[in-house]
Amino acid sequence: MTRFSREDPIFRTERPFREDYEPTTLHEREDELDEYADALNPIIKGDPPKNIFIYGKAGVGKTVATKHLLSDLKEQADKYNDVSLSAFHLSCRHLTSSYQVAAHLINKIRDQLGKDSIPITGYPTQKLYDMLFDSMDEIGGTILIVLDEIDHITKDDDILYSIPRATANGDVSNCEPGIIGISNDFKFQESLSPEVQDTLCDEQLNFAPYIPSQLRSILKRRSEKAFFDDVMDEAVIPQCAAIAAKDTGSARQALRLLYKAGELARDDNSLGDTISNEHVTAAQTKLEQNKLLDGMRTLTTYGHIVLCSLVQLTLESKTPAKTKDIYETYLSISETLDVKTLTKRRMTDHLQELARHGFLDREIKNSGSVEGRYALYKLNVDLELALDALEQADKVSNLIAGYRATAEDRGILDTTRR
DNA sequence: ACTCCACAGGAATTGAGGGGTG
DNA sequence: CACCCCTCAATTCCTGTGGAGT
Question: pLDDT at position A154, please?
């Protein structure tokens, strides 16, 4: 007896739905690709690269389009021996300062040069920049630096100024660098200093959200590869496309939805054995819950304790609660858990963090000279969901059984579910 | 129209932890 | 080893704010 099986009534292969799948064509982005290619074209003639800024919400093909065009461009450039092109793709998701970007960039370049990585901290800033320019000169030729999710760089924008100006400033002599910045925050550009805006935004491209018909054709193409024939109701793709278009216009979201619906159809026969609208609706709920659950689970211990405070206050019917009252609960929980307590100021930061993630609802109130100005917080997710998440968390997990019991006593939890 | 409350939240600072060089 | 650099959470200090009450 084994738990493994190759039998799968739905999926021929799951590959087209995986995050790392790279589609071979991008029919829905022809206009954008044309414009993008125009901006890159000077490189092929041996001219210095333009700096390009690409805007568009998550999942509208910015990164895929970039990878496609750059590999095509590289291929063409290789045909001319007077053009030497190197491109480096750096995701700035976890990088908040120019320093970190520079350090990671150096390692990308050193990797290509076959050199060992450098530590990503420790050096004085100027030294780091010198190392960056040195390795860029060593690579030589035209160097395109793709900074994906560039809006995560919030501390300073130094590097966005230094790299485009490197040639003019004599920092490099053997190469011509260009930056391609990719961002899903339309306001990011405004936050840049004027000098940077000036140097960096030679070309700007906008990737619009996908409209339903585009999402439908994307989904159709992928599902033909992934699914067996006739395992899906006709209305399924339009429904996934409609949901995603209304929400984010993101192909990623649409694909995830369809993927999840397929999984549900395979693993749970209660809704029938072909993918139907019910599966899509269930998939949507499931995905949303997973996202919240995951977000809550992966908070820091302090975040967990603050969330616990709100769970407890909810059980005591004391929400929405003022920061001051939450702080008292927070202190008592921290004491029982024997965890160091934070100041109120710091705890409010955690509260806001939770509110930003959508776990809490936050409202500013003002009662004049009677109560002054204050914030009210309440849980913004199902109590059960919060309990599920906290149960898997270090430190606070021991409290949850007690909370469950209280909740059950008060008939707050829907006990049919477990 | 003006006051005044109680807190939100910005700014500066600290301290611990990652690392470097000579 | 002594001394330096960058980062980030947390603390400390303090200014800003909006409307009920006068």
Answer: 85
DSSP-assigned letters across all residues of A359-414: SEEEEEEE-HHHH-EEEEEEE-S-HHHHHHHHHTSTTTHHHHHHHHHHHHHTT-S-
The three-class DSSP label of residue A86 is strand
Which nucleotides on strand C sit less than 7 A from a protein beta carbon? 4-13, 16-21
Closest to A319 (Cα-Cα) out of A309, A304, A330 = A309
Q: Residue A416 pLDDT more than 70?
A: no
Measured distance CA(A186)–CA(A178) in Å, rounded:
21
What token pair was written down for A98?
A: 């120019």
> What is the Cα–Cα distance from A307 to A309, expressed in whole angstroms?
5
Q: Give the span between the Cα atoms of A303 and A283, in whole angstroms.
A: 28
Closest CA to A212 of A188, A182, A241, A186: A241
Task: For residue A19, give the 3-state DSSP assignment.
Answer: coil
**Residue A344, amino acid:** K
Across the beta sheet with A321-322, the strand order is A321-322, A373-379, A360-366
Asked if pLDDT for residue A173 goes beyond 70, the answer is yes
CB of A165 nearer than 7 A to strand B: no
| Model confidence at A417: pLDDT above 60 | no
Please name the nucleotide lying closest to A365, CA to C1'.
C18
Enclosing H/E stretch for A178: strand A175-183
Q: CA-to-C1' distance for A121 and B18, Å?
A: 7
Residues 269-328 of A, Cβ under 7 A from nucleic strand B: 322-324
In angstroms, the CA of A373 and the C1' of C17 are apart by: 8
Answer yes or no: are the C-beta atoms of A275 and A302 closer than 8 Å.
no
A370, A278 in Cβ contact below 8 A? no
Q: Tell which phi-psi region holds residue A351, choosing left (phi > 0), alpha (psi between -120 and 50) or beta.
A: alpha
A370: CB within 7 A of chain C nucleic strand: yes
DSSP state letter for A181 = E
DSSP A159-173: HHHHHHHTTTTTS-S
Residue A124, CB, strand B, below 7 Å: no
Share of chain A above pLDDT 90, in %: 74
Pairing of strands A321-322, A373-379: antiparallel
